[in-house]
């Protein structure tokens, strides 16, 4: 039995509120159970120096957690004077995941920055950030298309992510914190809407896993991403 009482292949309840902020070109508050992430997308008519003049666009991301997103207060990274290694790793993951679903030629020489701010954490914050980040990105690109600033849709495929792992010897999907903290195997699966893999982060934490278990987790991930993509499309229709 999972602590939440969910079935092995049952995800947490997912909800999305678009247009959550007034000023961003695209914004969405995504809730996956008790993990809540605010995602905003900002369009700028500039690109990083390393692609300037190439005609290619760029999508990047930043990630952060509010001090009381967790059960004890975390010090703001700004007050420490630098970002932690976990933050840097996650925001790089979000950026390269979202870029995998973008035609950078069609986007043109402009940059879209997706900010993912965790309001409340209960496991799976990077997966929620990627899934909600794509929604914010989609809404921002819709504005570019409506204004005629891009000719063809630069978003080639939705991008979503879900965690899967081995908990109490069983493969489960969408781990919350009680499961994540006790899981023998923990993984994050980032895929496109057409079920093409972008990245898989898997690690054994206290126990190893078999090829058959890996395949079972892949099956769960495909099921979860399919459900999330349907939610993304519904939120941005």
Automatic annotation (TrEMBL):
* UniProt xrefs under SUPFAM superfamilies: Ribonuclease PH domain 2-like, Ribosomal protein S5 domain 2-like
Molecular function GO terms recorded:
tRNA nucleotidyltransferase activity
Catalysed reaction equations from the record: tRNA(n+1) + phosphate = tRNA(n) + a ribonucleoside 5'-diphosphate
Provide the family line. Belongs to the RNase PH family.
Per its record, how is this protein called by name?
A: Ribonuclease PH
> EC annotation?
2.7.7.56
Q: Does the keyword Transit peptide apply?
A: no
Residues making up the signal peptide according to the UniProt record: none
The UniProt subunit note reads as follows:
Homohexameric ring arranged as a trimer of dimers.
Read off the Pfam families from this record.
RNase_PH, RNase_PH_C
Which superkingdom?
Bacteria
Sequence positions that bind phosphate: 86, 124-126
What region holds the Exoribonuclease phosphorolytic domain?
Answer: 10-140, 157-224
Q: What does this protein do?
A: Phosphorolytic 3'-5' exoribonuclease that plays an important role in tRNA 3'-end maturation. Removes nucleotide residues following the 3'-CCA terminus of tRNAs; can also add nucleotides to the ends of RNA molecules by using nucleoside diphosphates as substrates, but this may not be physiologically important. Probably plays a role in initiation of 16S rRNA degradation (leading to ribosome degradation) during starvation.
What broad class of enzyme is this? transferase
The protein's UniProt keywords, in alphabetical order, are: Nucleotidyltransferase, RNA-binding, rRNA processing, Transferase, tRNA processing, tRNA-binding
């Amino acid at each position: 039995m999972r602590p939440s009482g969910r079935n092995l292949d049952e995800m947490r309840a997912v909800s999305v509120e678009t247009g959550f902020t007034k000023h961003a070109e695209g914004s969405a508050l995504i809730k996956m159970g008790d993990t809540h992430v605010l995602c905003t997308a900002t369009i700028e008519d500039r690109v990083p120096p390393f692609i300037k003049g190439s005609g290619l666009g760029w999508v990047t991301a930043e990630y952060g957690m509010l001090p009381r997103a967790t059960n004890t207060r975390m010090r703001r990274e700004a007050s420490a004077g630098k970002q932690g290694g976990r933050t840097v790793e996650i925001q790089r993951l979000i950026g390269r995941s979202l870029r995998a679903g973008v035609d950078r030629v069609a986007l043109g020489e402009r940059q879209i920055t997706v900010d993912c701010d965790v309001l409340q954490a209960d496991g799976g914050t990077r997966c929620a950030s990627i899934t909600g980040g794509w929604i914010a990105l989609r809404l921002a690109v819709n504005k570019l298309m409506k204004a005629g600033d891009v000719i063809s849709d630069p978003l080639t495929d939705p991008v979503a992510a879900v965690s899967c792992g081995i908990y109490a010897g069983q493969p489960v999907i969408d781990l919350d914190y009680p499961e994540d903290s006790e899981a023998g195997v923990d993984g994050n699966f980032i895929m496109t809407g057409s079920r093409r893999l972008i990245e898989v982060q898997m690690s054994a934490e206290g126990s190893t896993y078999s090829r058959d278990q890996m395949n079972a987790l892949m099956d769960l991930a495909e099921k979860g991403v399919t459900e999330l993509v349907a939610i993304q499309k519904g939120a941005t229709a």
